[in-house]
User: Fold this.
Amino acid sequence: MTTDFPDRLLTLSDGRPGLRTSLPIEIRIPSDPVGPLPPPGACLDFISSDETLDRYNEIISASGWNLTNYQRNPVFQNAHQQGDIIHTLGRALTTEIHAGKLVQCIQFATDINPMAKIAYGLYKGKFLNAVSVGFVPVRWEKGTDKTTYRRKFLEQELLEVSAVSIPANPNALALAYKSGSLEKSDLRDLADLIRHTLERSADFQSAVSPISNRQGHELFRLARDLKKLLHP
Assistant:
């Protein structure tokens, strides 16, 4: 695998090397019950796009998804970040393949995590329209001069699913706030959480899982953007 993807391999959630790619999605409020009871709380159905070319000129076959490992711990993360619990935005109540699409019902932890509440508002308001998947390629074929793709994944193991552009896109926050999808109290709660997290990291540098410098920089940037929204 290292010879086929020399510049793209990343360490995924279980420590194995794999790939990440973004999938555009359709979003809708669930209309059907999930399991024996209706889905609780803030839930959205994420319906990934069909087997279209991605930005790497590749196709991921929907029928090739192996979901076993992911379903053992079906968390929905912020930008694949694992170092702090504030980056856990929710969980997948269901992850299935339907009609050539990877379909999930995501329950956002809006009552517990202010960042999850922000993410829910951004997706529900259509200010975010993609997720990022981390996967281990198992079997693939290379394209030819007669195909439209450079590579087609025939079998792949799903390990991670994340929201993207949180907190990378302050414009999405601003637009969602102005549209009413987010309340000022939501932004204030998130700002308080970020301040607490940064203070905790500074006080406990020797902790088992301190936030990384990159995560700290991103949180600081998000705090700055939130301050501009709250105090224009």
